[in-house]
Amino acid sequence: MWTGDNIKDHLQNLKELAGRLDDLFLDDQQKEAHDFLTQVLEWLHLDLGQEVVTSNKEEEEEMLRNNRGRPMLRSFISELFYGCQHNSIVCGRNGQVICHSEESFSNLTLYVNTKKQYSLNELLKQYYRQQDIVWECDYCGEEHMCLQHSVITSPPRLLLLYINRVNEDTKSSHKTLVTYPECDLSLHPYTKDNHSPSYNLYAVCGHQGSMTSGHYTAFCKIKSSTSKGWYYFSDAQFSRANTQDVFFNPDAHMLFYEAK
């Protein structure tokens, strides 16, 4: 597949393999690109990963708890795509930490409700805002309103952002515009130590149509010695892209950033 030879056959083989691994991808109906990519990354990680071994018993037990009892794995997929965040729930009455955990992620789902326009930073701020949650408090001995908060402890090298547009009319093709930068995106307001690499955009997955049907396209930034700039891809067709079409794009569905 990397050479570009017989790519149609390779993609067909990938599709058939995905169907054997998960019935969701068995038929020829359109599926959610975000779901497929997330699943493929997990399959590759589980298939290629090597178990992380530690001599520290407490550290090993904590890794098992955070990984739901499964051995902790490391692969080139996790090295590239996976980040880690710290989640905590705090008593709303006395400020004590009730529970906390470390969680890995391969992408972030950013919800978009009906509005004229959002910026990507607005969506990230909304995602990492402190939230109220009803929780069984060990300190108070009863359920009451507590605070849930998450911070990034290890930003990924390749950052995948899924723009999940919520529309009550599932057949409507109207989409809220989300603006996003080409260069110097930073996650530092949402990290534990306020430190984040700067990210540059290298691809955009677009979805034309409604929540029930449509067509996927892509913009990719090519940096080869023979071709440079943004290109537009639609099935087997491709062409040079106008920069305005890349960044003023209400069909933007997934954003792909890489750390400098």
Automatic annotation (TrEMBL):
Domain USP residues, every copy: 1-260
Database matches in Pfam families: UCH
SUPFAM superfamilies xrefs: Cysteine proteinases
Keywords: Hydrolase
InterPro entries: Papain-like_cys_pep_sf, Peptidase_C19_UCH, Ub_carboxyl-term_hydrolase, USP, USP_CS
Keyword Kinase: no
Catalysis performed (reactions): Thiol-dependent hydrolysis of ester, thioester, amide, peptide and isopeptide bonds formed by the C-terminal Gly of ubiquitin (a 76-residue protein attached to proteins as an intracellular targeting signal)
Gene this protein is translated from: USP50-L1
Top-level EC class as recorded in UniProt: hydrolase
Name by which UniProt lists this protein: ubiquitinyl hydrolase 1
PROSITE patterns (UniProt xref): USP_2, USP_3
Keyword Acetylation: no
EC number assigned by the record: 3.4.19.12
Any one GO BP annotation for this protein: protein deubiquitination
Gene Ontology molecular function terms on file: cysteine-type deubiquitinase activity
